[in-house]
Structures are given as structure tokens and as C-alpha cells.
Amino acid sequence: KKILIINGPNLNFLGIREKGIYGNDDYNSVCKYIKEKYENEDVKIDILQSNSEGKIIDFLQSAYFNEVDGIVINPGAYTHYSYAIFDAIKSVSIPTVEVHLSNIDEREEFRKISVTAPACIAQIYGKGKDGYVEAVELLLER
Ligand code: DQA
User: Fold this and answer.
1) In sequence order, what are the beta bridge partners of 4?
2) Cross-strand pairs, 73
3) How far apart, in whole angstroms, are the C-alpha atoms of residue 85 and residue 82?
4) Ligand 1 centre and the CA of 125: distance in Å?
5) What is residue 69's predicted lDDT score, i.e. its pLDDT?
6) What ipTM was predicted for this assembly?
7) DSSP for residue 39
8) 21 lines ligand 1 (CB under 6 A)
9) 82 φ, ψ (degrees, to nearest 5)
């Protein structure tokens, strides 16, 4: 099975940005943590990151052409206003799980709304890096 994990803007700044909210682990160690979980399993995990909306849409479309089985996406702040990413998730018709490291329900008002989640089969938040693992598990169970 092939799973693609897509991380949006500022997630490459993990370990630097707002550590009280996002933790001390840097981006590469979070990626390593997820990949190591599946080292000995028959599943291929790719992780991509971009700060730009168009690139994220290109990643989603590439998942279609590469016949990816499931997508995990943390669209960062695009979560709260990108109808283009909502459309792209719908367009590729690949089961997608939305993940947020922080508890978006207990922060600023604008974070409570996700315009991308309705295109996804599930949304996981507030569980830190383990949220990504939970999302992969959910996709593999299908
Ligand atoms: C985030 C939550 C978003 O509101 C924020 O803009 C991010 C990270 C999270 O993983 O908790 O960049 O998606």
C-alpha cells in the first residue's frame, strides 16, 4: 500500500515555531518518527511539505497519477480558508484524513472552522505527531 502524507505551510518550522503549542520536535524528527513505525511493514510512506497552496494541490494531483491508496494532510492555516485544497481532495477521490498537531478547537476562533475537513473521511487533532500515525492506521484499516 502507498500512503502520501502532505504537510502545509510552516510545518517545516516545527521545533522553531510556537513550541508551547507544537512541541520541541523538529520537522525531520517528526517525519522520521512516522516512517519508523512502518519500517518493517508492507506499506510505503512518502512525506511532502510545501508552504504554497499550488504546490499542495500539485502533490494531491500527483497522488492520483501515482495511484496512492490513502492521503494524510495537514494543510496548516490553509485548513481554514482554502477551497482550492478542498476541491483538490475531492478531485482525486482518494481517502484522505486531515491531521492537526494542536487542538484547533481550543485556540483562536478562526481555527475552529476547517473548510478542507468536509472533503476528508476523518479529522484528527490535538494528538501531536501521534495524530499522523493514527491517521495512517485509519487508512490502512480500510
Ligand atoms: C495546524 C493548525 C493550524 O491552525 C495552523 O495554522 C498550523 C498548524 C496544526 O497542525 O495544529 O499551521 O494545522
Assistant:
1) 46, 71
2) 6, 98
3) 5
4) 9
5) 98
6) 0.99
7) T
8) no
9) -90, 95
Tell me how far apart the alpha carbons of residues 111 and 9 are, in angstroms, rounded to a whole number: 15
Whose CA is closest to atom 9 on ligand 1?
Answer: 100
pLDDT band of residue 53 (cuts 50, 70, 90) is very high
Question: What are the extents of the domains in the chain?
Answer: 2-141
The per-residue pLDDT for 51 is: 98
Tell whether domain 2-141 is in CATH 3.60.150.10: no
What band does 50 get if pLDDT is binned at 50, 70 and 90? very high
Count of residues making up the chain: 142
Residue pair 131/125 in contact by the 8 Å Cβ criterion = yes
Contacts of 141 (CB under 8 A, 6+ apart): none
Is 100 part of the annotated catalytic residue set? yes
pTM: 0.98
Which residue is associated with the grid cell 480500510?
A: 142
* Residues 53 and 82 sit within 8 Å (Cβ to Cβ): yes
Residue pair 38/4 in contact (Cβ under 8 Å)? The answer is no
What is the rounded CA–CA span in Å between residue 103 and residue 128? 9
User: Across all residues in the chain, what is the average pLDDT?
Assistant: 98
